[in-house]
Structures are given as C-alpha cells and as structure tokens.
Write a structure and sequence with these properties.
Radius of gyration of chain C: 25 Å
Order of helices and strands of chain A: HHHHHHHHHHH
Number of strands of chain C: 0
Oligomer: heterotrimer
Number of helices of chain C: 15
Shape of chain C: flat
Helix content of chain A: over 70%
Structural class of chain C: mainly alpha
Distance between the termini of chain C: 19 Å
Order of helices and strands of chain C: HHHHHHHHHHHHHHH
Strand content of chain A: under 5%
Helix content of chain C: over 70%
Largest interface: A-C, 38 and 45 residues
Largest sheet of chain C: none
Radius of gyration of chain A: 24 Å
Strand content of chain C: under 5%
Number of helices of chain A: 11
Structural class of chain A: mainly alpha
Distance between the termini of chain A: 50 Å
C-alpha cells in the first residue's frame, strides 16, 4: 500500500467531509433546497407527465399511475406540483434578491449618512411600511396586470422597506466602530467606507434577515396565487392548486397536501439557509470569542 | 497545599478556607482550566486582596467563593468552606442560603449589574427579603438605612429612582448597599472600582474599608490595580494563569516580593512618586495559549529569571516559604528590594530598559506644531427621548504643542478630553475656535473648513482605545496596514507590500503576521498593528486616545515604549489622552489637566506632579493609588467633593467650585482664566494650592544593603 | 409627554396624507376616464343616461383640471367622511362599517390567544430543563412560522370540519344573531390566524429572554440568594420582553395582510374579503378607503407601542444622567 493510494480516496472524500463539517443548519438547508432547485431547473426530467394534459379522471385519489392523484380537470397532481416550482422558486428568489440588494444598500446608506437625509429617508420607509404588504402587492397587480415580472416587482416592493429598516439598524450599530472612524480620519469617501467596511461586516446579519425575507416571499407569492392574482392559469402554481384543492376538500382531500408541504418546506429551507450562513460566519466569531475568553479576564 | 494559614502567617479563626480548588470551564469539546489548585484562608473581619491580570482566574475564584459559578463551570476538585461548612457540591437550594447571607458580591460595573427596570429601593428590598421575612415596607426602611450607611446622598429619593438616574459612583454605593442587605460575613468585591474615576474610586475603597471595620465583615478585593490592593488589603494573593504564584502579608508582598512575576508586575506600574522613567518596564510575551500546558512553571516563558532554565521547564514549582516572609511558587525566588518603584532610586537595569529622566536638553524650545485657540464644542443630546439639552463638552480650550513633544492631556470621564482629541483629528467639528497646525494660517476648527485646507490627509493620525474595535475584523494585517496608503494614494494593497513589511518591523512584529486577522492577535499586538497603520502615512502628529487603557498592566510598557521610540527616531509629536496620571507623568514631557471641558492647568510633567497648583490637579494626584502599603496608609488626600457638575447648564464662574475645598465667593462670580503663574506653568484658579505641595512623605530610596 | 403625543398625532395625519396621495396618484396612472371608475358600471342606468352622468360628473369632479386639484377635491370629500360610492352604488362608508366589526372580532380572537399562548410557551421553554421537549416545541414553532396560513386553514378544515365535523368549515354568524353560532364559526379562522402569530411572538420572546439572561444583573440577582424562579420572573422577564413589544405592535399593525387570506379561506365577511373583492372588480373607492383605514391602524398601533414602552421601560420615562 503506497502512500499515494492511501491519499487518493481521502482526497475524493475530502470535499464531502468538508461539506458535512459545515454548520448543521446549512447542511439541512442545502438538503431541503436542492430538490426544489432541481424541480425548478429540470422539471420535465423529474415529472412523470406534462402539467397541462389530462391524464385521468378528475379528483381521483392516489394510484399507481398518479402518485398524488389528479386535479379537478384530470391533470396529474404530482407533475403540476413539480412544474410549479419553476414559477414559485424563481419568483421568490428574484424578489428576495432585489429586495435584499436594494433594501440593504438604501438602509446601510441611510444609517451611515445620518443627518436630514437619514431622517427624510426613514420617514419615507416608515410610510412604505405602513402600507400593508398584501395590499401593496394587490394594488400593483391591479394596476399593472398579472404576470411574473409584475409579481416579482410587487413582492420585492413589499419587502424592501423592512429590509431597509433592518439594514439601517445594523449600519447604525457599526458606524461608530473605530475602524470606520480610522478611515474617516483619512478622509475616505462615504462610498469607500460603505463598500469596504460597512457592508462586509454587516453581511452576516443582513443575510440572516434576507433568509426571513425569502421565506416571506414564498408565502406572499403563494398567497397571491391563492387569491387568483399570481401567475395566470393554466400555468401551475402551488397557491392556485391549494385554492382548487380547498374548493374540493370534501372530494379529494389529498390534493392539497403536496402543494402546502412544498410551500412550507421551501420557506423553512430559506430560513435554515439564513441561520446556517449566520452560523458559518459565526464559526469564526466563536473562534474569536473563544480566543478572547482565553486571554481576557476569567 | 500550603496557604498562609498553614505556614503560620496568619492567625486564622477560619471564616473562609479554600483548599486545592480547581475549576474548569466546559466548552465544545475542550475544557479551559480557569483556577488551578488554589488555596487560601481568611479570618473574620480580614481583608484579602486577590491580584491578577486578565486570564489569571481571579474573577472565577471570586465567583466560586460566593457559590455563583455559571452552569458552564465545573469544580474539578478542592473545597471551599465558610465557617466550616463546605459549599462545593451543594445543590442550588443550599447555595441560595449562603448567597447574600454568608457571602455577598459587589460587581464591577454597576450600570449592568443593577436591573434597569426596577427601582433602587425595590432591588435592595429584594435583597433584604431574600433572607428573613420582612414585609415590603419593612424592607424599604432597611434599604433606606443601608443607603445611609453607604453615604449615598439624598437616600429617600434614591429609593424611588432607577439605576440609570444615578451616577457611576452613586450606583456603586447602591450596589454595595444591596450586597450588605443580608448582613454577610464576607464581601467579595470584583473589580468594584475599575469603571470609576480615580477620585470616586478612592472614596469607594475607603467606604469598603470602613464598612468592613464597622460590621466586622471580611472583605476580599479582586482587582488588577496594585495600588488599590496596597492601600486596602492585609494579605495579598497574586495569581497568574489560574494559579497562585505568591501570597503573603501586604507589606512583604510589596516590600520584598519574591516571585519574578510579582516583582515584574509591581515594577510595571508607572511610578507616581519615584523617579520618572521614560521607558517603562513590561513583561514580554503573553499568556500560555492552551490550558493543558507544558509540564514546567507556567510563567517560565516570560520570566526574566527562569526563562530557558531546565529546572523551571521540567516541573511546576510548589508554594513554599521564602526569605522575605511570603509564600511563593518559584525555584529561584528573588531576594531584595524592587529596583524600580515608589521607593526606588533611578537605577537603570538592563532588561527593564533605560530609565532616562532628563527632558530634552535646553537647545531652546522647539517650534510650535499645533496651536489650539478657544475651541468650543456643544452637543445636542436627547434625554428620555423627548427633550434635547445642549451639552458643553469642550468649553473654550487653548493649547500649544511643540514639535517632537510628548504632550499629555489628562482628565476624568466627562472632562472633554476625548471630544477634544476627536476635534484635533477631524472626527468632530468644533463650533468655534481655531487650529493652527504647523505654522499654516489659523483655520476654523470645523472639519469642513479643515478639509478645504490642502493639508494632506494622514498628517494627523489617531490611535484608539479599543484595539479590538479599531481594526476591521475581516481584514488581514497586511490589508490593515496598507489601507491608509490605499485611501490616500490609491491603488490596491499589494502595491504596498514593502511599506507594510517596513511598518511591521518598525513596531517589532514578525513579517509572518501579515496574513493573520485581528481576532488572532493579542491586545498588545493589535495595538501595535494599529500604530503601524497610523505610521504608514508619515504623520507629524499622533493622537493616542487612551492607547493602553484596555491592555494589561504588564503589556502597556511595550506599546508606550514603542511610541517613545518612534517619536525619538522620526519627526513625530505625540499627544497622549489619558485618565492614567501615573502613566502620563512618566511618558509625557508636558501635561495639561482638563475638567468639565476646560483646561485647568498646564505645566511640564516634573513641575506639575511635584507642585500642582490647581486644587483639582492636587486632588487627582492625591487620589491615585500607589503600590506601596506604607505610603498609601500615611498619605494625605486632597478632597475632590462630589461629582462633575451638570454640563448641560451654563456654568457661571469656576466650573470646579462645587467640588473645591478652596472655593470662595469670587469663584462663583468669575471664571478664572488660564494664566501663566510660573514660567511655562499655567493654571486657572483664584486660590491655587501653594507651590511644592507635599502630598505625603516619600521614604528615602532603599539601597540593596538595607532590608525593606 | 404631551408634546410627544401631539407630535405622534401629527405624524399620523402626515402619514395618512402621504398614503392617500400615493394611492390617489397610483390610481390616476390607470388608463381610462377616472369618472368612469368613480361611478362604476351602474348596471341600472341606460347607456345614454350613463354617458350623460359621466359627462356631468367629469365636469363636476373637475377631471379636466390638474391632478392636484382633483386630489384636493377628493380630500375635502374624504375628510368629511364621504369616500364616494362603490361600484354597486353603495356608500363606501356603509360597506366598510359592516365589514370592520367582523374583522375586529376575528383579529381579537386571533391576537389575544396567541399572546397568551406564546408567553406561556416561551416562559416554559426558557425555564425547562427537558431538552428534548424544548427542542420539539421550538421545532413546532418554527414550522408554524413558515406554514402558509391558507394551507393551515385547509388542514384545520380537513381535520376539524370534514373528518370530525366538530366545527363549520366556513361562514359567519353575527353575534347579534346567535352567540354560540358566532363562536363555532369563529374557532377555525381564529386558530388559523393565531398559530403563525404565536410562533412569531414565541421566537422573539424566547430570544429576548435568553438575551436578557446574559445581563450582569442576573448574576447579581442570583447573588442575593433569591430563587431561580424569582430571577426569571422578576428580572429576566421584565427586561426580556421589551423587544417583543415592538414585534407585537408591528404584527398587529399589519394584521390586515393575514386577515385577507384567512377571511378568504373561511368566507369571513370582513375587511380582508372586501379588499380582495374590490381588487377583483376594480372598486377603487373602496380600495382607497380600506388602505387609509389600515394605515391609520398601523400608525395608531405604533403610538400605542410607544405608550406601552413608556410604562414598561423607565429609561424612556425618565431621563438619566447625561
């Protein structure tokens, strides 16, 4: 047994082992989110049928050919659930990304800038927050019509104020740190300080907040579909499926289980992702803390 | 195990007996040993001082004595007995019986140690009712009595107030009252004065002293401040890295310490009454990283006596009686008096660095680098979320700093010194006044005006107090040091590799450190990186705002000496902002004293400390604890009454008069101007102290031949 | 104190103005004659009558005038309580009035139990030593937090209305008509509303308690020799629940969003259902009125939150040392 042959399998297993050494929440999140990723990207590969064709008697229960039964038109529920991921996952991801980036930048800037800009900006954000979430989304959709893009923008608009507020709070906490003042003494520009110091140091808690946003995005988007304001049928979406399931709750109760589970699990996955990312960065924080306790007063 | 009792040092009537105590903190996987085989004894009414730096285990020991160890801590072995009753291994319910009744604790920071949402009266009342069955009314009455006992002014009203409405000193008194509620036989005070001003500290220590005597209560004072221990304790326990390294009577410990660590620690305290020493002694190195240390003496790697010695490396020395009367854990205990310190003469010793007392030779005064004229800064502060008041932080300050000088600005909290520092550096904008830097035309002290000036950024740099805060935790040392250059000259960090390497060597750090992050460095190393950072822009003025206040006593010297070296080599002027007068006395050539936003006295260091004219300066100096037990017990104190005046109100007349023993009618009407009473010695007082005030007799220097 | 109150009231008015303006201008972005929308389809009119009415109304409403003026006209009407007509021809205020009470009833039925349950559970979770159970409860809470309310409603209906027939699946019985009927219809929607709220409050409260426990005053309290129970209830709780107040306020202020779904699922005739209806039929007068009402509730809630803080945290009440 040469050294090389002992080393080889270890090298292959190394990334796997490294993956599992990550914080539990992160691992769990990836495990939960991976199937959704697959469903969103290659649904036709996974799903047994097309989501649009009738394949059986409407509202029949689970059977060998239709694991989750059929919907009110006779389409395969399982396939429709899988294809829904395309819109639901994409919409929630896109909306979260927009709300996160725009909201964080606005919030961090406001918190750092201070002065009248901050006061005015915060007032605006407060007014936006006073607007109930669903209402704003409903409004925008009523005005601009249905469609994926409108939905994404609407959901992003709804989530942005709370992200901005949170980012501002984090920024306020950090701006008095001496390393930022150290750069200010050298007359560094505000943009520099935000880019180089504020955002990187705030990122950990911002990401945790973003994960909560992600979960909200999923829930809001599903709610909109439920109310008939999301993607237009016959495009499948979990929310609309739940609506239809509810209409037929007495006849085919199983219909509504899968879409609901998907929504819940996806939302939960986002939250775990945030917690895991926080713990990842927190790992170094723990090291730091452990180091500190070993040399500070005990 | 041997302890003071066993060797007959003390007559013990056995109030407290600790034997072989070992405490671990359990983490994820590994356990950290906080207290290692500690033994001690204390008689009823006795006063013990436990001294140590960070990581010494003193706080854990203090908590353990009170049965207050957190759930993450485990007593691995040993015993603690209060009047014969064992408390190790007791269940929570039984421990509750002794807490507050047998032994009570006073904590460091009363701001966080008092419940912010409950009134003082209810909290003290709770302590009273914890043992015994008093009603709420009765408990309040007892609380009132306790507040009187701790000399808290206006006690009836205080009962109804909340902690945030009291000042720091008042809160600490309230906390002491709370600790006394159960009539404890033993009081453990964990750094009770570290968060307080030195004038308040002196009063609190006096209070503890008096309470102990009046109540027949034993006191254990846990602290890092050697001066405080010297004045307060009867017996002393010196701890290092969890173990006792020396213990004995206070006179012996400070007079003829045997253990090299004890000696180095005492020598590291900048002298207030002895000769001035420009380069301060320090203990190089840091605490051992892992708790499961090597076999030998834990102090050996840093020990001036035993470093590298095979015997010291082979096994841990046990506590044994030394010739000076103390009990020390050392194979080579040192005999003889201290070389540096309040009783010593200025004898230069090699490993301590030279002690240069001479100020700059008279080649004529150096040119003026910075002239500050009438700077005023007022803040708008919101109180209680509704009203805003104006706080005059800096109320007309004028200063002259000369090139190459080491200038000290001292004052207590609220004196305005930090605000002034921030104005000098450009972080704050003054409301009025001018700054004249390096002969340029005077410029308004607002930051906007200064930015309009062409003076290059980085000419004035700052070292901050908290090294953990002043370095971006995400950046590597290389990036940290290169950043000022990136900001002022543009480009990316790798362009400045050579400059970074140069800066690192200038501050005595290895080049290998470039890839590390701040979290991997010790406090002293971080501060040195901060200095390297500041020096890259070739500043002409460096403002050090409490640069060493967060470092251990034994590490301060290294950073301060570095600053002195850098100053001597280059063309650098340094302003030290500090509340630590002893440090400033040694390190600075010229010192200004601030109170309530004004300069009250400016003079050369030597002159200021031998002949302070302003009553506040005299009061401050007399309040500073000195690690010399005899001195501490015989010195006379100049009183500084009460607390800082309320800076939100416009002050008519002298701002110090409410605290001044010399105050008279004239002081209430006229604000005394800063005048040059003696050559190069300015003060602002109508009734200054007489010159060459003798604060206390300083004993003649002790030579090697005579015993202490 | 009165000064703060006055300024908050002013804030309320300003926010309402801002929101009404935004809403108004958003609507004006729509194509078509605004008079058309304002009047609605009015099915009982003939086309000619309708056209005449539109023309008259357009002139009357000053639709040829600049937008600002139109807003002003609307505003002056609104301040007097005249929010116009719905598409059915009713007075908006009448329609709103009948829906509001149903929503209020449901909101209270959801909020109050959730507050009680979350506090009880959080305190238990904080103090218990039973690790497994605590983890289980926390897991359940996390799930409840992300579960979509319409699915939760679906499950509850399935389990409690379909399978076991213990509660009706939907509908509403006014209190005036029958108290027991009202109650039995209230249970499922209230439960659906309460579960995510409980999960939310639980999370924040538990986090707040754990944060407060790390304070130095907790060790100091233990040092007095008082029981763990006393430490938890007299020191940790009063400090730890403060951040939760803000969250409860926020949740209450934005309750409408949750109500929209729950009322839809259970055919509960409250503001939420009305809102969805209005959107579907483009009844903008009603929409604007509902939005304003919601915003008012939001700002009002924040005032109440500030008031509660004033009582709970003495640091806001009395200024400390500067």
């Amino acid at each position: 047994m040469s050294l090389a042959s002992i080393a080889a399998p270890r090298r292959v297993l190394a990334p796997v082992r490294a993956f599992f050494r990550l914080p539990k929440a992160l691992v769990a999140a990836v495990v939960l989110l991976l199937p959704f990723g697959l469903m969103a990207v290659i649904p036709s590969v996974i799903a047994p049928y097309s989501p649009y064709t009738t394949v059986g008697i409407p509202l029949s229960g689970p059977s060998g050919s239709n694991w989750l039964g059929t919907d009110e038109i006779g389409r395969d529920v399982l396939s429709r659930v899988i294809f829904s991921a395309q819109s639901d996952v994409v919409i929630s991801l896109a909306a979260t990304a927009i709300a996160f980036i725009v909201g964080s930048l606005i919030g961090v800037f406001l918190g750092y800038r201070g002065g009248w800009v901050d006061t005015a900006g915060t007032r605006i954000v407060d007014v936006a927050l006073a607007f109930p979430a669903i209402v704003l989304a409903l409004f925008l959709i009523a005005i601009f019509g249905h469609g994926e893009l409108v939905e994404i923008v609407a959901i992003a608009a709804v989530m942005m104020p709370s992200m901005a507020r949170f980012a501002r709070g984090t920024s306020l906490l950090l701006r008095n740190r001496a390393y930022i003042e150290s750069s200010e003494i050298l007359r560094a520009s505000r943009a520099y300080v935000i880019r180089r110091h504020l955002v990187p140091n705030a990122l950990r808690s911002l990401l945790v907040a973003a994960s909560v946003l992600g979960a909200s995005a999923v829930l809001i988007s599903a709610a909109l579909s439920y109310l008939g304001l999301g993607v237009t049928p016959p495009t499948p979406s979990w929310g609309t499926m739940l609506y239809n399931a509810f209409q037929n709750v007495f006849q085919a109760p199983i219909y509504g289980v899968a879409p609901g589970v998907c929504i819940t699990v996806l939302a939960y996955g986002y939250m775990l992702l945030g917690r895991g990312l926080g713990e990842l960065q927190g790992r170094t924080g723990r090291q730091e803390r452990a180091f500190r306790t070993s040399v500070t007063r005990v | 195990m041997t302890g003071p009792g066993a060797t007959g040092l003390l007559e013990t009537t056995g109030l407290l007996e600790v034997s072989g105590l070992t405490v671990d903190y359990l983490g994820r996987g590994d356990a950290v040993r906080a207290v290692d085989d500690v033994s001690l004894e204390l008689a009823a009414g006795g006063r013990l001082g436990i001294v140590g730096e960070s990581g010494s285990g003193k706080t854990t020991l203090g908590l353990a004595l009170a049965g207050l160890l957190p759930r993450t801590a485990r007593v691995v072995s040993g015993s603690i007995t209060h009047e014969g009753k064992q408390i190790v291994g007791l269940r929570e319910r039984a421990l509750r019986d002794i807490r507050g009744k047998q032994v009570s604790v006073v904590f460091q920071d009363a701001k966080t140690a008092l419940d912010p949402v409950r009134t003082i009266g209810s909290q003290i009342g709770e302590a009273v009712r914890a043992h015994g069955s008093a009603s709420r009314q009765e408990a309040l009455a007892v609380a009132l009595g306790l507040l009187r006992e701790v000399e808290l002014p206006d006690p009836e009203n205080r009962l109804r107030q909340y902690p945030h409405e009291l000042s720091g000193g008042q809160r600490q008194r309230a906390m002491i009252a709370m600790a006394l509620a159960g009539q404890p036989k033993l009081l453990v005070a964990d750094e009770p004065t570290s968060a307080l001003d030195v004038t308040t500290q002196a009063k609190i220590i006096d209070l503890l002293h008096r309470l102990g005597e009046e109540r027949g209560m034993a006191t254990i004072l846990v602290t890092h401040d050697l001066g405080v221990v010297a004045g307060f304790a009867e017996t002393v326990l010196v701890m290092y890295a969890g173990a006792v390294v020396e213990t004995g009577l206070v006179g012996d410990i400070f007079g003829r310490p045997s253990h090299p660590y004890t000696r180095a620690l005492i020598e590291a305290v900048p002298s207030l009454t002895g000769a001035r020493v420009r380069r301060l002694p320090f203990i190089p190195g840091g605490l051992p990283r892992s708790s499961s240390a090597a076999a030998g003496c834990r102090f050996e790697p840093r020990c001036s006596v035993g470093q590298g010695n095979p015997r010291c490396q082979a096994s841990e020395p046990q506590l044994s009686l030394t010739s000076s009367g103390t009990v020390a854990a050392c194979y080579f205990p040192v005999d003889g008096p201290l070389r540096v310190g309040p009783r010593a003469g200025a004898v230069p010793m090699a490993h301590l660095g030279e002690s240069a007392t001479g100020d700059a030779a008279a080649a004529g005064p150096a040119p003026v680098l910075l002239e500050v004229t009438d700077v005023v800064k007022t803040f708008r502060v919101t109180r209680g979320g509704s009203s805003t008041v104006r706080l005059r932080a800096v109320a007309g300050v004028s200063l002259v700093v000369r090139k190459g000088e080491s200038f000290g600005i001292v004052g207590e909290s609220g004196s305005g010194k930090t605000t002034l520092a921030r104005i000098l550096v450009g972080l704050e904008s003054a409301d009025s006044g001018t700054l004249n830097f390096s002969g340029e035309d005077a410029v308004a002290a607002s930051s906007a005006a200064r930015r309009r000036r062409s003076s290059r950024p980085g000419e004035i740099q700052m070292i901050f107090q908290d090294p953990g805060d002043s370095l971006d935790p995400l950046m590597t040392v290389e990036h940290l040091i290169a950043e000022p250059l990136e900001i002022t000259r543009g480009g990316r960090a790798h362009r400045y590799r050579s400059e970074v390497a140069g800066a690192l060597s200038e501050v005595g750090l290895p080049e290998a450190m470039m890839g590390r992050r701040a979290s991997q460095l010790s406090g002293g190393q971080r501060q040195r990186v901060a200095i390297a950072r500041a020096l890259t822009t070739k500043p002409r003025l460096l403002v050090a705002d409490e640069a060493v206040a967060s470092l251990d006593m034994s590490a301060r010297g290294q950073v301060l000496n570095l600053l002195s070296d850098v100053q001597d080599e280059g063309d650098l002027t340094c302003i030290h902002i500090s509340h630590d007068l002893s440090m400033v006395r040694n390190v600075c050539e010229r010192v200004a004293v601030m109170h309530a936003g004004r300069i009250v006295e400016v003079a050369d260091a030597e002159e200021l400390f031998t002949s302070p004219r302003h009553p506040y300066t005299a009061g401050l100096i007399s309040a500073i604890p000195v690690p010399d037990p005899t001195y501490e017990r015989t010195r006379t104190r100049i009183e500084v009454v009460g607390e800082l005046p309320d800076l939100t109100h416009r002050v008519v007349g002298c701002a110090y008069r409410s605290r001044c023993p010399n105050a008279q009618e004239r002081c209430a009407a006229e604000d005394p101007p800063l005048v040059e009473g003696d050559p190069a010695h300015f003060w602002a007082c109508h009734y200054p102290e007489p010159p060459k005030l003798e604060l206390a007799s300083v004993p003649a220097p002790v030579t090697d031949a005579t015993p202490a | 104190m009165a000064k703060i109150f006055a300024s908050k009231l002013l804030q309320l008015v300003l926010v309402l103005l801002a929101i009404s303006a935004i809403t108004f201008f958003l609507l004006s972005a729509l194509p078509g004659n605004a008079a058309l929308y304002r009047i609605g389809p009015l099915p009982s009119y003939t086309p000619q009558e309708r056209a005449a009415l539109i023309a008259k109304l357009s002139a009357q409403l000053g639709l040829n005038k600049p937008l600002i003026v139109q807003y002003w006209i609307w505003l002056t009407h609104a301040v007097r309580g005249d929010f116009g007509l719905t598409t059915q021809g009713e007075q908006v205020t009448t329609l709103l009035g009948s829906s509001v009470w149903a929503s209020v009833e449901l909101a209270i039925a959801g909020l109050v139990p959730s507050l009680i349950a979350s506090f009880a559970l959080a305190l238990w979770a904080f103090r218990t030593r039973w690790r497994r159970m605590q983890a289980l409860v926390q897991g359940i809470m996390s799930t409840l937090f992300v579960i979509p309310s319409f699915w939760l409603g679906f499950l509850l209906v399935y389990l409690l209305a379909v399978k076991t027939q213990s509660f009706p699946a939907s509908g509403f019985v006014p209190l005036a008509q029958s108290a027991s009927g009202n109650f039995s219809h209230l249970v499922l929607p209230a439960l659906t509303l309460a579960c995510p709220l409980t999960a939310l409050f639980f999370r924040y409260l538990l986090a707040g308690l754990e944060e407060a426990e790390m304070g130095a005053f907790v060790v100091a309290a233990r040092a007095k020799g008082i029981s763990d129970r006393a430490v938890a209830y007299k020191h940790v709780l009063p400090n730890g629940f403060l951040p939760t107040i803000t969250i409860v306020g926020l949740a209450t202020g934005s309750l409408l969003s949750s109500l929209v779904i729950v009322e839809s699922v259970f055919s509960w005739p409250g503001l939420g259902s009305l809102l969805v209806q209005s959107v579907t039929v483009r009844d903008f007068n009603t929409l604007v009125a509902i939005v304003l009402l919601t915003a008012a509730v939001f700002v009002f809630t924040s005032i109440v939150v500030d008031l509660i803080y004033w009582f709970a945290d003495p640091r806001t009440r009395r200024p400390g040392q500067v």
